[in-house]
Amino acid sequence: MTVAGWELRDAAVRATRWDWPVVPGTYLGSDRHWHGRQDATRLCPLSDTWSETSVTDPDQAHEIWSDQPYGVLLVCGRGVDALELPHQMMGVLTALTGAQPVAPVALTGSLPRVLVFTATDSDFLLPALRQVRLHGAGAWIALPPTATELVLRQRWWTTPPKGEPPLLPTPVVLDALRNSGTGWPDDEDE
Questions:
Q1: Which residue positions in the chain have pLDDT lower than 50?
Q2: Residues 154, 105: Cα–Cα separation, whole Å
Q3: In this structure, how many other beta carbons lie within 10 angstroms of the beta carbon of residue 62?
Q4: 41, CA 20 to 30 Å: which among 2, 28, 116, 147?
Q5: What is the pLDDT at residue 129?
Q6: DSSP strand E in 64-167: where?
Q7: Residues spanned by the domain of 20
Q8: Residues with Cβ < 8 Å from 104, sequence gap 6 or more?
Q9: CA separation (Å) from 30 to 34, 69, 173, 175?
């Protein structure tokens, strides 16, 4: 699925205004092939040195994404991380909307997964949770509306508010999962 270049440019600029570091990624052309790198066979950063070349300046993002409809890839571990959960755990996220601000949440993948954007906590170690993956330092993830597959693009489940979106600490989200009993390992798994 091709995505309009202006949508991707706007997403990249918006992310940099939130101080989220982004890098350009490959993109699907109307010919249903990946473009941006000669060896592209899937979504990936344009540069092998992507972690060192992230963009946080809105003007620079506008310039880069005005050239081509590059995918918008978030460099994790620099102020923002993401917890990837099965879509069945979305109900747990609604429990966070009471006393806490709503965290930005995106839907991804042909087997629906949920990305919950959290504040980077470099001292935090992810406990063994079934079906939960932490995207932290050394990882990148696609931001909406980046196409991730031939027929799918990322989309926001909870649209981030104007201004910098609130980021819950990872332990707050994990406590909600633990208290729900969803995704926490059984005694036999520990």
A1: 1, 99-101, 183, 185-190
A2: 11
A3: 15
A4: 116
A5: 67
A6: 71-75, 80-86, 105-108, 113-119, 133-135, 140-142, 147-149, 152-153, 155-158
A7: 5-189
A8: 116, 117, 156, 158, 159, 160, 165, 167
A9: 9, 11, 38, 43
DSSP state of 138: T
CA distances from 174 to 10, 30, 71, 82, 90 (A): 31, 40, 29, 12, 13
Q: Report how many domains make up the chain.
A: 1
Q: Is 102 in a helix, a strand, or coil? A: coil
**Neighbour count for residue 56 (Cβ, 10 Å):** 17
Q: How would you classify the pairing of strands 168-169 and 113-119? A: parallel
Report the SS3 class of residue 141: strand
Question: Quick one: pLDDT at residue 60?
Answer: 97
35 class by beta-carbon count within 10 Å (0-12 exposed, 13-18 middle, 19+ buried): middle
The pTM for the full model equals 0.85
Check residue 98 and give its pLDDT: 52
Q: Are 150 and 156 in contact (CB under 8 A)?
A: no
Cα distance between residue 181 and residue 183, in whole Å: 6
Burial class of 61 by CB neighbour count within 10 A (0 to 12, 13 to 18, 19+): buried
Q: How many percent of the chain have pLDDT more than 70? A: 76
